[in-house]
Design goal:
27 helices, 11 strands, extended, about 850 residues, Alpha-Beta Plaits, alpha+beta, five-stranded antiparallel β-sheet
């Protein structure tokens, strides 16, 4: 929990690795994922680094694996999934793997090229067969082996018959893709001015592209013409439209003989193709069983060499030196890995690490589990926490689902959300292995957050006594009906007076809203409006006060106690003296005024809290009528005047306090620097506290007498004053606007309840009463389905998303702005697991 309250303490270390153990040591560190390496070769480009040849070799191996993966996909095979990932290969395994991949790729390429060549020949022979068969009828009339009617049906009317007369005609026959036929025909017409006669016929079965494997629809065509000039033009057009031209004999006997030969060759070629396909299939099956293991090994090897490229080689060429950020709690684990690898490698000099000091700000690292990860992701989306500042995710674990529940309060809708989230939690092992879309991954990643949101929605739904716009009556209503039957029948609306025992028992409902309010459509909204609006203001002020109070933790931890006096005190006083006092007035109004009390303390004399607050800010006295009292308690006017005056005095104190303090501090430091005490021993600039690392990690290098440096105190006095002015104006104005912003809790809760009630009355209730008797019992299924779909789509999904976004806004702006800086950068350790997950995500995209 300590690392979740604040980020992990980080230290900067220098690693000294022996060359023979460097690769295996970095590989083990990648498996553990506890170091973030720093690049010590920023001045070198990629091609000047030591292990550039090894990285190139890894890239070449990746290329071969991608080629194999594509071939496996074309063959329709699935790669075998790995239960456990293999470790990074050692030097011997790398050489063996590289040689094996080279051999396997060569065999696969040879088989693939042979298959492509055979398929190309097969396609050409198939096209030639169709050309011979489809064009046979076009020459039938000329050869006398077909009737005139058959020829006429194929090539047209009298004009076609005339063109196919015994005059000498040249022709070109071939095959063209079907989608190119219209343009091909128009182009032939234009270049010949109508002197080319084109006939075509469709090939029924699609032909396979040998290179891509895609199916292509093609047509057989024959173009008749006269003259060598047209022949040259026709061939150029065929070449431009990528049409395949085949030699077709002029006589029937030659064509028949050629068809028989083509069919024989196709049969032989088909047998060879099947054998080649079986050979390739068996080869791909063997590759598919090992492909994932090879890919993981190559990616890990490549990552290790990329990391080694960040190291420096010392002048003796006997040691690799690197720098890395390490969580303080993981230092011993790193030392154990270094010692273990030095022992197994047989190195005479062991690898070791040194903790060094630096003025750089360490990265931010929060340890999370599957429950806290979703809350941390929500906070990090706003901004990464500064190093060691309080983590809002810890408090948002409860406040986030609670505020969501206030807006989404409905037992029925909350139960739907809870069941969905509970299903994801119980089936998380199987669901984590499934590949879903981006939206599904978001839902699954936030399953515990959704579960808590559903549970809090059920809780607030019980308080609102609202389940699908209906109410529970568990404890019995505190309201009674004092009217007789005739009065009820003669009046559409009747009012129950809470001042009389006959109407109200004077004992409130034990938990939540009294179910009787469900039967009061006239003033139900007025009652809920007042309650939920005041409740929203109370929750908002308490939430903001909590946020301001958390800033004390940061001031104390970073050893800036003066900020507690100069910032926290005026901030919390301004917020409490005005808006917390307004909450006190609300509570006093609830406690003091009642319908059963005497007239001066009755509900008619209850003052408006909003008007009271406005008069308080304007130093005006309350207007009242006899016999009501002017104030809620003695000396209220005087107390309110003091509260406003003190709150207003907090503004100049907040505005001028820190700038004046910094000015005095600088003057004192300057004076102290000009007149150093002679009795003191000077402290060297490079002297470092011995226990600095153990206390706070890698901080600034400083002397024993130097105080922690506040980055906000740097710069000229005018800059500091301007910055403090902006901060003061922003806080004062945001206090008012943020308080009003919490009214969204009331607005969304009221809108959700009203929409649920409208959907019930206009769909389910109307449908059930529209068709009576037997037919109505059948239509209930359809009506319920419509109501259920609208409930899930509108009230659960759309309203749930709206409430989630508003809750996000209340945390990011209204709550976190009171204490959270969020100017850090994320800790990104060298981890094989993270690298493989990132590459898998990129492959999916």
């Amino acid at each position: 929990m300590g690392s979740y309250l604040r980020s992990e303490e980080m230290v900067l270390c220098e690693l000294f690795l022996q060359p023979e153990a460097a690769y295996s040591t970095v590989a083990d560190l990648g498996e553990s994922g506890i170091l973030q390496f720093r690049d010590m070769n920023n001045n070198l480009n990629t091609f000047q680094r030591r292990f550039v040849s090894a990285v190139k070799s890894a890239n070449e191996m990746e290329r071969k694996l991608r080629f194999m993966e594509n071939e496996i996909g074309k063959d329709g095979l699935l790669t075998q999934k790995l239960d456990t990932l293999p470790t990074a290969p050692n030097s011997r395994e790398i050489l063996e793997l590289e040689a094996h991949l080279e051999k396997t790729e060569g065999e696969l390429q040879e088989v693939s090229q042979s298959s492509i060549a055979l398929k190309s020949n097969f396609v050409e022979l198939t096209e030639l067969k169709h050309v011979l068969e489809k064009t046979q009828v076009l020459f039938a009339e000329q050869e006398g082996t077909s009737s005139f009617n058959e020829t006429k049906a194929l090539i047209g009317e009298d004009q076609g018959a005339a063109n196919l007369s015994r005059a000498r005609l040249s022709f070109v026959a071939g095959v063209i893709p079907r989608e190119r036929v219209p343009g091909f025909e128009k182009m032939l017409w234009r270049i010949s001015r109508g002197n080319v006669f084109l006939r075509q016929a469709e090939i029924e079965e699609p032909l396979e592209d040998p290179k891509t494997g895609n199916e292509i629809q093609k047509n057989v065509f024959v173009a008749f013409f006269q003259g060598d000039q047209l022949k040259s033009r026709v061939k150029k057009v065929c070449s431009g439209f990528r049409a395949s031209i085949y030699q077709c004999p002029n006589t029937t006997e030659e064509r028949l003989e050629m068809v028989i030969g083509v069919r024989t060759r196709l049969a032989d070629l088909s047998m060879v193709l099947n054998q080649t396909k079986d050979l390739k299939h068996r080869l791909l099956i063997g590759i598919a069983s090992e492909l994932q293991s090879w890919m993981v090994k190559v990616k890990k090897m490549k990552a290790v060499y990329h990391t080694l490229n960040m190291f420096n080689l010392d002048v003796t060429n006997k040691c690799f030196i690197g720098e890395c950020w390490v969580p303080k709690t993981d230092l011993q684990q790193v030392k154990d890995i270094l010692a273990n690898k030095s022992e197994t490698s047989g190195s005479s000099i062991p690898s070791f690490l040194n903790v060094v000091e630096t003025s750089e700000v360490p990265p931010t690292f929060h340890r999370t589990n599957k429950f806290t990860n979703a809350f941390q992701v929500v906070i990090d989306a706003y901004g990464m926490a500064s190093y060691r500042e309080l983590n809002p995710a810890l408090y948002s674990t409860i406040t986030f689902p609670f505020l969501f529940g206030v807006m989404f309060g409905d037992c029925g809708h909350g139960l739907i959300v809870t069941i969905f989230a509970a299903w994801m939690v119980m089936q998380e092992k199987s669901l984590s292995k499934s590949k879903g879309g981006e939206i599904w991954n978001i839902f699954f990643g936030g399953r515990y957050l959704i579960l808590l949101m559903g549970l809090f929605s059920i809780y607030t739904g019980l308080i609102y006594n609202d389940v699908f716009s209906k109410s529970f009556n568990i404890f019995g209503s505190s309201w009674k009906n004092p009217y007789n039957e005739s009065t009820l029948m003669d009046n559409l609306e009747l009012q129950l007076d809470p001042a009389y025992v006959e109407s109200y028992s004077q004992y409130p409902y034990p938990f939540g809203f009294d179910p009787a309010w469900q039967l009061a459509p006239g003033n139900k909204i007025i009652f809920q409006n007042s309650f939920k609006m005041k409740l929203s203001i109370m929750i908002g002020v308490v939430h903001m006060l909590f946020g301001v109070s958390l800033s004390v933790g940061n001031h104390v931890y970073f050893k800036q106690p003066i900020n507690i006096i100069l910032q926290f005190v005026p901030q919390v006083l301004f917020l409490a003296l005005l808006f917390l006092y307004m909450i006190v007035l609300m509570i006093l109004k609830w406690v003091l005024y009642s319908a059963a009390n005497p007239l001066e303390w009755g509900t008619r004399c209850a003052p408006s809290v909003l008007i009271t607050f406005i008069n308080m800010m304007m130093f005006k006295s309350m207007e009242y009528e006899e016999p009501c009292l002017p104030t809620m308690y003695p000396y209220q006017q005087e107390v309110q005047t003091v509260l406003v005056v003190v709150a207003l005095l907090c503004i100049p104190f907040l505005l001028l306090g820190r700038p004046i303090y910094i000015l005095i501090k600088r003057s004192s430091a300057k004076k102290h620097h000009e007149e150093p005490p002679k009795s003191e021993i000077p402290v060297l600039d490079n002297e470092v506290e011995l226990n600095d690392i153990e206390k706070g990690g890698a901080g600034k290098r400083r002397s024993h007498s130097e105080e922690p440096v506040d980055p906000h105190e740097e710069g000229s006095f005018s800059d500091i004053f301007i910055l403090q002015s902006i901060h003061t104006i922003e806080y004062i104005l945001s206090t008012i606007s943020h308080t009003a912003s919490y009214l969204r809790l009331w607005a969304l809760s009221l809108a959700h309840g009203q929409l649920s009630e409208v959907l019930w009355n206009m769909v389910l209730n109307k449908g059930l009463t529209l068709v009576p008797n037997f037919v109505g019992s059948i239509t209930i299924y359809i009506i319920f389905a419509v109501w259920a779909v609208f409930t899930l789509a509108i009230l659960v999904l759309m309203e749930g998303l709206s409430a989630f976004l508003h809750t996000l806004r209340l945390h990011w702006v209204e709550f976190m702005s009171k204490f959270y800086i969020g100017e850090g950068y994320a800790y990104q350790p060298f981890s094989f697991k993270a690298i493989l997950a990132e590459e898998e995500k990129e492959d999916k995209e």
